[in-house]
Amino acid sequence: MTARTAHLDQAVARALSGLSAAAKKGLGDPALAELVVIRASQLNHCAFCLDMHLGIARQHGVPERQLDLLAAWEEAGDVFDERERAALALTEAVTVLTDGFVPDEVYDRAARHFDGTALAHLIGLVVAINNWNRVMVGRRIPPGGYTP
């Protein structure tokens, strides 16, 4: 597979990077942030983002077992704690929007584990990675080329 275009407007890239950085900083949990962006990237089939964020997750100490089982987190038993499960459920709900909205039960579950500020940052992070996924998938950017 070859990229359709390597061009990305730098103002757009800076805006997306700023949103990502602000959301991650506000969430205050780099390991959880990487689980969230990896899960969204799995759902969106973004090889570039998966390649990049799997490496970043390892740098933040995310256990290999979590990375191995992330695609099946709901069936992974105690590999993920309740806070992580709530964040992953919200990630999927915001990413997929199956019924056109985030179900109340999913939002309420996340709200039990994150205060209002952290929840806003979590949602912002999901929105940010979904934007990045679409930018990369839309241009067919292959994995590789990212240097931490």
Please explain how this structure is put together.
The protein is an all-alpha fold and 148 residues long. It has a single domain, classed as Up-down Bundle (AhpD-like), CATH 1.20.1290.10. The chain is 66% helix and 0% strand. It is built from seven helices and no strands. The protein has helices at residues 10-27, 30-43, 47-59, 64-69, 82-96, 104-111, 116-139. Helix 1 (10-27) packs antiparallel against helix 7 and helix 2 (30-43) packs across helix 7 (116-139). It is globular. The mean pLDDT is 94. Keywords: Oxidoreductase, Peroxidase. It comes from Streptomyces longwoodensis. Residues 12-92 form the Carboxymuconolactone decarboxylase-like domain. This is Alkylhydroperoxidase.
Order of helices and strands: HHHHHHH
Instruction: Kindly identify the CATH topology.
Output: AhpD-like
Separation, N- and C-terminal Cα atoms: 23 Å
- Assign the structural class, choosing from mainly alpha, mainly beta, alpha/beta, alpha+beta, or little secondary structure: mainly alpha
- The total count of strands amounts to 0
Q: Would you identify the regions where 5 or more consecutive residues have pLDDT less than 50?
A: none
The top-level CATH class is Mainly Alpha
Strand content: under 5%
Our Rg estimate from Cα atoms comes to 15 Å
What average pLDDT do the residues reach?
94
Biggest β-sheet description? none
CATH architecture assignment: Up-down Bundle
Number of domains as seen in the coordinates: 1
How many helices? 7
Helical content (DSSP H or I, runs of 4+):
55-70%
Let me know the CATH homologous superfamily. AhpD-like
What's the assembly state of these chains?
Answer: single chain
Apparent shape? globular
Pfam families: CMD (PF02627)
Protein name: Alkylhydroperoxidase
GO molecular function: peroxiredoxin activity
Keywords: Oxidoreductase, Peroxidase
